Amino acid sequence: MNAVLIALLVLPLLGAALTLAPATVFGPDHAAQEKRALRLGALVTGLVLVLTVALAAGFDRAHSSRMQAVTDTAWIPAIGVRFHLGVDGISLPLVVLTALLTFLCAVYSTRRLPDGPGVPSARAFVGLLLLLEVGMLATFLVLDLLLFFLAFEIVLIPMYFLIARWGSGAKVASANRFILYTLLGSAVMLLGFLLVGLNAGTFDMTALAAAHGHGLSHTTQVLAALAIGLGLAVKAPAWPLHSWLPDAHTSAPTVGSVLLAGVLLKMGTYGLVRVLLPVVPDGTATLAPYLGALAAVGVVYGSLACLALARQGSKGDLKRLIAYSSVGHMGFVLLGIASLTPVGVNGALFANIAHGLITGLLFFLVGALKDRYGTADLDTLSGATGAALYGRAPRIGALLAFAAVASLGLPGLAGFWGEVLAMFGAFDPAAGLSRPAFVTYMVLAGLGTLLTAAYLLIVVRRVCMGDPKQTAVVADIADLRPYEAVSWTPLAALTLVAGLWPALLLGLSDPAVKHLLGGG
Amino acid sequence: MISSVSAPVSAAAGHQLLGQPAVHPTLLAVSNPGGLIQSVDWVAIAPPLIAALTAIAVLLADLFLPERHKKLLGRLTAAGLALALLALLPLTGGHPRSTFCLQNVAGATDNAGCSYVADHFALVFQLLALGGALIAALLSLHTVDEEKLPSGEYWFLLLSSATGAALLPASRDLATLVVALEVVSLPSFALVGLRRDGRGGEAALKFFLSSVTATAVMLLGVSFVYAATGSLHLSAIAEGLGQAPGQLKPLAEAGAALTLVGFAFKVAAVPFHFWVPDTYTGAPLPVAGYLSVVGKAAGFAGLALVTSIAFRPYGHTWGLLLAVLAAVTMTAGNVAALRQRSDTAHGAVRLLAWSSVAQAGYLLVPLAAAGYAGSDHPLGATVAYALIYGLVNLGAFGVAALVGRTAPANRLDDYQGLFARRRWAALALAFFLLCLAGLPPGVVGLFGKVVVFRAAVDAGLGWLAVVMAVNVVIALFYYLQWTAKLFVTPSTEPIATAGEARVPLSLTATLSLTAVGAVVLSVAPQLVLQVVSGSLF
Q1: I want to staple B369 with a disulfide (CB 3.0 to 4.6 A). Which of A448, B161, B459, B527 is the partner?
Q2: Contact B473 A187 (CB under 8 A)
Q3: Does pLDDT of A180 surpass 70?
């Protein structure tokens, strides 16, 4: 038993339960109630963040391939479900990232929560945010296939309501599309889990990883890998299963977009690394070339879509653009995983974290622009010459340029290492995989990086540069506000740290990845 | 047949006494005289017996009670059902008790000749039947008053039907099974029609006609099976089917198929499901809830018994039949529920009715898996799912009854913004619906689906599992739409009407009971899922 991991799940759950208390518990009048509820959210997520930092501090980096802080007790013996929690070098960075992003979102929301007619109270928002945190953290902490499925499903309802209630535009349709797509994916994933669990006789991920596919026939492995991979690919999302993502991002509120891109997409790729690679290695090896192909197409497709959206006169929505750029970036992650090499998988995990930090920051920034301008439409924003943020709101403009440059993979920032390592993995894929095919994917991905640079620079030119004197949609643009600075600075700082000191993350994940791939 | 009624003897002791082989068979007129003497194990039959005695007590008391004391009848019913539930407790430990046994019936198990066996399967379904009836009774306490239903008749019919539902899962011969099923059904027709308005009459008639057709078909099937195998005892039928001479095979197969068709009617499987929505909307709400849970449970118990014990030799045939039936039933139910418009009158109950058809499809999956796997192990999944479904579905009907008090039309639109008006009722309904959909926070519903999927995958019914996965997604859409409706923020301040201020205590108690039960099971699913791992028979 280890109290820290349990506390990580119980704290936000209790917080969410507390928001169900009658309104009068929170204060005498409506305004006070809203304020206190939002503070409660910040407090609980803050406590969770402190706990994860303590967890990271106490983590034994010398043995990062071993599960640490393990709790393992029977929960539903009838179907062999164990309450098995633990962290290793793969999950620890994701846990910290999740806690950090949730905390920043909670802090951001204390000042900037969409309201208006038809928008529910802040208490409901906080309750859903905390419930979402439970599901996200649980996904990275659990070590039982059925619990993983449960955690995967916990995030659906809160995210649905965040999009459908606090979103904008065609929010209900987007929310429906999000939940139906992901549920179909995860239901198929459950079938794969059951196939594995019933044939291997256990649902325990560590035991299954230790067996490394031993005792599962090739047919079972391929079938299971197909089902599980399909479910996770919807979440990741892999081209061509990504079509729920742009709509969801466009409609979601800022906080929802940040968490959706920053954490929810990672649940898919984390599942690929944690479940698919070690549990059904033969099946994964059979499917890896196809996954690699989808990944490469995703990279090119995502950047081409972004280029189209960034063009003048195409009525491109900035949030939609960043959503498509996520499809491209997650393509790199999938390519790294598909290479089945330690280099590629390490790169994928690094790119995961980097994307969480950078895209989180980008969505915060675009959300702030949308608040100020009332729209995220690129043509409206930029007018004839460009939105000229450098001149009108220099701090926001600089941050946006910083995030865009980090996103295109400038060396020295977080975006660089993951994508380079993923392509490196594809250059020399694992034994048994077709080298020419993977080199082709690598070339495609390389083309993708060029296209990515092109559209991000176009965005920077159209949003940050321009003539500050031209008549703009909104006359005065407020520059960086204190609460925005507080919630964005950590992301920018960590992007820099991860870019300059990649060993911080790679040293953690490398032994664990080698362990999962069966090499150490 | 001589029936000697002795003091309650334990089954084991009784068995030993009766099980002695006749020492000198030739000296007696019959080969095994001991086999003709039956002792009744009163403890074993206590649960249905208590329900039946309460029914008679209610009927008699109704004659003598003055009008102003008629309320007592409802309480007497609830107390009787609670007592019957308590009577299950002594049966839980140790060896399954059996009674009404014949010694001259050959069979694989030592209970082969018994017509009544209180094994785990029977006990769990009795828990579901009596518990469901109790919740329905609590829901009815205020309905009977407010809708001016004849209380003596209402409570008597409810108890009679519950008696049948409790008797059915324990019965182990086709005659008792059919009689028990009719004891469930006949009072239900009257219950549905008790409201005596146009809709009630139509609902009862539809229900009656389809049900009677089912019974007729089933009786024909039973007689064929009896002719082919020479026995009505389920285990003996299994033996007989295996050894039936060649020319009787078609008869036996036709009999088995007809019997299954009869049960398919009772569980409202497609294409025998058309009566469901009209019957549910025409009946008083608690009765609709009762039918959707207890009536359905009785059908499933019978279907499980007949398929997995009596027709075991034909496992692959009916396995495929049930698998196809399951796939079609869940799809038809979900698609119809999806098409339900939010502004039609009685939309809420109609939606619940169609969703209960779909849920019946899920419940059929493990039964089909049992046929494929050739063992009764997957049945546990049906039992567990039925328990979970029963609890949350009755809860949902409870909230529908609550909303129906102020909005008699009970449209889906009447649930708009319920959270602002009735916080806890809305939260409870949201929880029940998410349990039915199988999505967290309805954890118990999720694990209910998991065990059903597991049964299908384990038996190699991959295609059925995929069909079910797609159906779960379809179902989520309408459950979620309803759930989302509850939390819409109303643009105007809610107007508290006089009727809304007071909720009958019994209704509050029922809702709390079901909601707390669902939450507890979500935290500790083992409580209900343990039936999956243990042996049922």
Answers
A1: B459
A2: yes
A3: yes
